[in-house]
Amino acid sequence: MPELTLFDTEGNQVGEVGLNQDIFDIEINEHVVHEAVTAQLAAKRAGTASTKTRGEVRGGGRKPWRQKGTGRARHGSIRSPIWVGGGTTFGPQPRDYSKDIPKKVKKLAVKSALTAKVRDGELTVVDGFDFDKPKTKQMVKVLEVLDAKDKKVLVITDEKDDDLYKSARNIPDVKVLLGSAVNVYDVLDNEQIIITEEAIKKVEEVLDK
To answer: Pairing relation of β-strands 123-126 and 13-18?
Structure first.
């Protein structure tokens, strides 16, 4: 069972934390991680690009000229795709880019990402945050003592904490996330993860289901 040092918000070592080896110490599966990240990014795509076909462009209801006898090419509508102002052939239409992947694959990807963070020394465990009111300066100080200042940081807590969220939201590259919502992209997209002791239990609970 891997163990990490437990810190308080002043940077003092206050103990050790044992981690579930089935989550934080597994064989990293890079292919699964790639699949999960790709699916997560694809789900964020809006897919709202839309062009009008010849049936949707306004006008063109009357045949521009008679079929024969004019010396000009035959045309049935001025909104044909070959006309200026006409419809678009095979243009983009609203669509859903999301990809379905099995829940087990998603969980394995998160476990692999967390394992990588532990092995790279990029996961810090704290005993909790005791903000009695929103204060950005206090959050900046916490990042400094935990050697996470000027880094892209993901803070994971076990339950919603408005004071913590408001203290961190004005700091560039700092994101607060619930343990129940942990995902592979956010884990990999940040240089340092600061997680509370209780949030570890929440993450283990979610990934063990």
So the answer is: unpaired
